[in-house]
Amino acid sequence: MQKVELLSPAGTLEKLKIAIDFGADAVYGGVSHFSLRIRSGKEFSMDEFAEGIEYAHSRGKKVYATLNGFPFNSQLNLLKKHILAMADLGPDAFIVATPGVLKLCHDLVPHMPLHLSTQANVMNVLDAKVYCDMGATRIITAREISLRDLVEIKKELPDLELEVFVHGSMCFAYSGRCLISTLQSGRVPNRGSCANDCRFPYEMYAANPETGTLFRLEEEEGVGTYIMNSKDLNLASHLKEILDSGAVDSIKVEGRTKTAYYAAVTAKAYRMAIDDYYNGINDVEKYQYELQSLQNRGYTDAYLISRPFEKHDTQSLDFTMQLGTHQVSGVVNEEGTHFLCKYKTLPNDELEIVAPLNSVIEIVDNEIGTTYERDGRVYMKLKQLLAQNKKVWDEVHSGNINPITLPTKLPPYTFLRIPATADMGTYPKV
């Protein structure tokens, strides 16, 4: 049985490497404004994207290039050049959102597999067949689709690959087709520059059009005003049900603009869940332990399992973002010998080691510190904060640029974390 693919976001070259090292089978990302994430697209130069593809391919992994923006007529010549330039880098597929761009890619680079973006809103067999006939090899279905409808599409089109989102930010708009920030700030979501206006708190007003009277409605204390703020998707608890259907070829994590820690933890959690499934195991508590450590807007299982009208818990009305259960306190360098501090760290603090799956962490007790196991997890305590420049610190804080020596070598990009507390606020973007 071929395992379902785990597809993770790659907003930067570093995040690409982290997602792959922590368990992703494939990653997706883009260069320039033809991607729906302009900010992450700016993080990649063509050379860096080529390096990322080489890194992935050397490890037997895949890279899908995003061309899922909605271009204007004035951009079409530039788009053609961009398609050819991206194809020369050797990605494993293009992700596109419109029929015109799909056909253009098919004409210019007929050898390139084409994945249809969720922005195309495919919900049924008829639409899936149209895009399949046009050359799409995979459909990234609408986020509002049900598992039952996925099964029907797979029955009708067994050779068409189906991909579904299982984790990440959800949109107030239909599958991300939003105009809110276009109207309010001129930043166009469907061109990759969403301002996240749906995440803001709003005050409610009533107006009398005859008199021009306007007055603010007083909100009830304790009832939030984040009226368009969707909770984050989290389907880890339903993965067995999804894979039992036999309809899904790839599960996808949203988040090219999320942190490196997010890229690592989501890849690790869903990697564990997928591998466990094929071994007859379903340890939901284990997967959720990792995912609950992330910042989130509250979690929902959204619409794949339940229809939108069957539930009313998908909006986070009281806050825009909350801390997860853990705080990132350090990130290990590529050499695995030192870490950069991301939160206040003192000697003898207990730091949990978050490394890629199946990593072997040496248990040591030396002059620098100790590593030890407890309840199936590995922890570290530093006896001294010895910097790479040999200076010993009494404490280190986020922003300290002096790499701190580890008591034993750890895998590159390993994270160190501690339990979050209410007074921590928002942790730095790692």
Outline: globular
- Main sheet overview: 8 strands, parallel, barrel
Helix content: 25-40%
Distance between the termini: 37 Å
**Which ranges are low-confidence, i.e. pLDDT below 50, for 5 or more consecutive residues?**
none
| Main β-sheet, spatial strand arrangement | 1-2-3-4-5-6-7-11
Query: What structural class do you assign from the helix and strand content?
Result: alpha/beta
- The total strand number stands at 21
How many helices? The count is 11
Tell me the β content.
15-25%
User: Would you tell me the overall average pLDDT?
Assistant: 89
Radius of gyration, rounded? 23 Å
Describe this structure in words.
The protein has helices at 13-21, 38-43, 46-58, 76-88, 99-108, 125-133, 147-156, 180-185, 239-244, 260-278, 284-291, and strands at residues 5-9, 26-29, 62-67, 93-96, 114-116, 138-140, 161-168, 205-208, 213-216, 232-234, 250-253, 299-300, 326-332, 338-341, 351-354, 369-374, 377-382, 385-386, 392-393, 404-405, 415-419. The chain has 430 residues and is α/β, with parallel strands linked by helices. Helix 6 (125-133) links the parallel strand 5 and strand 6 (138-140).
